[in-house]
Design goal:
Layout: H1 2-7, E1 13-17, H2 24-31, E2 42-46, E3 60-66, H3 70-77, H4 81-88, E4 91-103, E5 106-124, E6 127-130, E7 147-163, E8 172-173
Parallel strand pairs: 1-2, 3-4
Antiparallel strand pairs: 4-5, 5-6, 5-7, 7-8
The structure holds S-adenosylmethionine.
The site of S-adenosylmethionine has 15 residues, from strand 1 and helix 3.
Length: 174
């Protein structure tokens, strides 16, 4: 996470782990003055993925799970869809979600991508509503001035893509 925080200093990066000791080194590095490699854009939270989303619902631009162990690994590989969804909903619409897993000595990257769908929308009284939810005005003298358009919107359906995180080996599987 520190590498990512260094590469993208404009973003705030939050590390989550139920074992405080597992974050101790990284948190000491981040707390150092910036001239000594410290990162003011990093925070650490002691907590388990099972407690998500909590206050993080739809707040994250990006979610990364790096080489999970224990119950977090179980959630990923079973997969425990309900708990996985609780993690995914921490992402804003369109957020990226990547997981790196170790299988033996080989790492596998997994990306969870929210699929979009083409939806017909109707512009009514200054805002768009889904055509499927639109109720036309009743009454003999009511003129309906609304108009329709189509847009790609997040569908709420997820797709998992497995890929090689190594530059020298290229493969991916939707
Ligand atoms: C191999 S370490 C990876 C640490 C770090 N992500 C990295 O890349 O250096 C696996 C971590 O998963 C954490 N972990 C296990 N179960 C978890 C859970 N339910 N929620 C969050 N973290 C968990 C463990 O405490 C451990 O620190």
């Amino acid at each position: 996470m520190l590498d990512a925080a260094r590469a993208q200093p404009e973003r705030l990066w939050l590390g989550l782990d139920p074992v405080a000791g597992a974050m101790a080194n990284a948190s000491r590095t981040a707390a150092a003055p910036p001239r000594k490699g410290g990162l003011p854009n990093v925070r650490f939270i002691r907590g388990a993925a099972e407690s998500l989303p909590g206050p993080f619902s739809r707040r994250m631009d990006e979610i990364r799970i790096n080489y999970p162990w224990g119950s977090l690994l179980r959630i990923m590989v079973l997969p425990d869809v309900e708990l996985l969804r609780n993690i995914v909903v921490c992402g804003k619409s369109g957020a990226s979600f990547t997981i790196f897993l170790n299988y033996s000595t080989v790492a596998i990257g997994l990306a969870i991508v929210e699929m979009s769908e083409n939806v017909m929308l109707r512009y009514v009284s200054g805002k768009y509503v889904r055509e499927s939810e639109y109720v036309p005005p009743r009454g003999r003298y009511h003129v309906d001035n609304s108009r329709t358009t189509t847009r790609d919107l997040p569908s709420g359906r997820m797709r998992i893509v497995a890929y090689s995180p190594y530059d020298r080996v290229r493969w991916s599987m939707p």
